[in-house]
Write a structure and sequence with these properties.
It holds the Pfam family Bac_rhamnosid_N. It catalyses: Hydrolysis of terminal non-reducing alpha-L-rhamnose residues in alpha-L-rhamnosides. One of its GO terms (molecular function) is alpha-L-rhamnosidase activity. Its EC number is 3.2.1.40. It is an enzyme of class 3 (hydrolase). The protein has about 900 residues and is an alpha+beta fold. It has five domains: about 100 residues, Immunoglobulins (Immunoglobulin-like, Sandwich), CATH 2.60.40.10; about 180 residues, Jelly Rolls (Sandwich); about 110 residues, Jelly Rolls, CATH 2.60.120; about 325 residues, Glycosyltransferase; about 100 residues, Maltose phosphorylase, domain 3. About 20% of the residues lie in helices and about 30% in strands. The protein is built from 15 helices and 48 strands. Strands 19, 20, 23, 24, 25, 26, 29, 30, 31 and 32 form a ten-stranded mixed beta sheet that branches. Strand 7 and strand 8 form a beta hairpin. Helix 4 runs parallel beside helix 6 and helix 10 runs antiparallel to helix 11. The protein is globular, with a radius of gyration of 29 Å. The two termini are about 40 Å apart. About 55% of the residues are buried. About 0% of the residues have low confidence.
Length: about 900
Amino acid sequence: MTDGQVAFSLLCDQLVEPTGVAGAVWLSWSLSNAADSAPEAVRVRVWRDGTRSAVDAWESEWMTPLTAGIRHGEDSLISNTRYAWSVEVRSSDGSSTRTSSVFLTGLVGAGRWQAQWIASGPQSVVRADPPSDDGLSYAVRYLPPTPYFRHEFTVRRDLERAVVHVTARGVYELFANGERVGDRELEPGWTDYSDRVEYQTYDITDALRVGPNAFGATVAAGWWHGYVGFDRRRQAEHYGAEPELLVQAHLCYSDGSEDVVASGEGWASSEGPIRFADLLMGQYVDDRVDLGDWTLPGGADSSWVPVRARDIGSSIPTSTPRPPIRAIEHRAGRIVHSEPDRILVDFGQNLVGRLNVTVSSLERGGSITIRHGETITPEGDLYVDNLRTAEATDRFVSSGRSATFAPTFTSHGFRFAELIGDVAALTDRDIEAVSVRSDNREVGTLTLNDEGLDQLHSNIVWGLRSNMVSIPTDCPQRDERLGWLADAQVFLPSAAYNANVSAFLTSWLRDVRYTQDDDGAFADVAPRLRLPQQAAPGWGDAGVIVPWTLYRLYGDIRVLQDSFESMLAWIGHIDRHNPDHLWRHAAGLNYGDWLGVEEETDRELLATAYFARSLELTAAAADVLHATSEAARLRALRLEVVDAFRREFLDSSTGVLRSDTQTAYCLALAFDLINPGELPLVASRLVDAVERRGPALTTGFIGVALLLPTLSLIGRSDLAWALARRREYPSWLYSVDHGATTIWERWDGWTTTDGFQSAQMNSFNHYSLGSIDEWFYAYAAGIRQSRNSLAFADLEMEPAVDAAVGHVAASFESPRGLIRSEWSYDGSTLEWDIELPPSCSATIVLAVSPRERVLLNGVELTLTAVETEPPLAAPLAGASPRYRWRVDPGRHRVTRLVT
């Protein structure tokens, strides 16, 4: 008997069992590698959970197994309904298997909201200013108490299902009958609230009972009312003056009837233990303020007053399924310094989140203050200067009862925490760090046979985790934490090898598009702040690069359909202001190759290169969307831009660019701005620019993502490895060797000669310079999508084999299934194991000397020389010719050995 093909990783809109689906969905799946027979066809079925009647079911035709996904539900989905769906795989031996998943709809269609926004009523107690010696700064002293809300309602009979839709202007926690609803934190996340507020959907059937029930909720300032970024002009009220809550529950009974429980005038509010909560400043909890059983029926006392309610208006909350923000990992700490009233705790990892502190012996009124920092000074003190105005300080006052202090309405970037006050009884077991972040499903593994390189990869992954909390941020600790567009676009390929970021970034792209002004210019950050930053080269271009890259990575055409008009508008903006096709005007602050080392790349060169790149990708998107005339127009314009670039910046006789920098040559080569005949000269100039430095890198945020891939493409993976393994400053391993557990913002964030860089801009948790991870996966391991492939249907696998490295292993759960590449090389024999999923094929490429032969699964291969695209331009003298072979799905062993 043979095992049939099995579908796995069933995803709805790139998420596992999402809730709140409110429109057509993209259903996708992977096929397993462990089967004796080949897949012949796949079929998708969708039905209302609990029934398989023909009335409720939808079924696709049998499709080719190469299909990456299918769209469903344009007009057929019903609100508040759980749907099941399955993928059936028919194998060549006649067998078939079926795998199922579910999704839960939100409010489908317009006019479904009945709830009102509610805000706290008049305060029951006039809030007095804290005493001046309480340790609180002026910035936090006047933050208002966090409002609490409650409402009681009746469930009339047995429920078939109960679904609640919730959002806030602020960040919320919802309770039903004393139980926390869901495990999301810091929701509804950060969007540009002037455009939209997202709502979340929860199934609360099991939390309710026939008879009296109660909702309780807390709404903190969050991004809506709290401190946001470094815009001091509008901190604490950037969007709105106070937190508000919106709740609508649908109680669906087994007889088909329905009750709606909605926030409005019947709800009540009060103050509670959370005296203030702010994402940047911290959270203050006074446990002596006791609301009793406020989330249970009958739990109200005289402190509760009626809320203020107002209609929902024209700004209807939207549901954009994205990964929830969750408490994902708990890490124990180690007390590294102890005094009677102060301890310093090291958690061994820079992360984003909070502390949980369990107290069991504090007297009533005893307090603990927690300060957070990424590192410590040489004297052993907590280093907080680089936080700027973000105080990142939490405070707990005890009621005298045992309690766990978990400040869930704030967020800090830290490795170290300083606890001050009544801390003498605390031990390591009482303190843990909690990593709170968007739960992007992780899909990659990588080992590089070197402790430093493996730590570097870990640092990159932790930078990814730390800077994806609702939106992709630059840093998680200081008074910034903004969605800088360039950071996201350069890091996206590296991010996608490590996590499925499709839904996360698709949601963020809506905010990117909303920043676009009437002239077509994107802002530099999204959501946009009231700041002058606008339309910088490499930053605004993310509005083109990110949607195209997501389409290539995941195969969902909707991201192009949603973004295409804004992509065209961006091109029009640049073109109108630069009729000579050199991007000199309307370039915003034009940051250039931000934070490069020792040399600066001409900013007009960088801008014009990005203009050509955005034209290339927008033309490709036009092809996909069958906008034929637009594609032709864009390609013609690109040719003019490339010609202008070459005339202005390139000496074609020598291959020298006006900026003789690594980044300049990488832009010219990677963005295909050089004629084929000029490639050897220009490539040799890139090699010179690297070797004359040591070899060492000089690239900043823009160039760093291109440097190693470009070196590999011109035949100098040896030089790429030299840069990756370099330990002296400037290098990736310099920070690793000095204790980094995430990627630094600057190459010189701390050096042995100068100590800390300026605290005004010195984050120790930025992912931009971690863009090297794409090279590790795609080139070092060889898991690289071919140029015209979609969703990893076809690969160009050419591992950067190096005897000094010896061994590399990588796996990647692609949209097609698991791809694996692992090689070992001792200087004479190469053993390379490859695994491809059923709907994926590959071309393998190896350099083979006349003294070597190649075996595929034990069978010797015929050697036929090939050229690659782009052609090799600067190979090492005496380099062996390169050969290619096609391989089918499955497991393969490639052996290259000396004859």
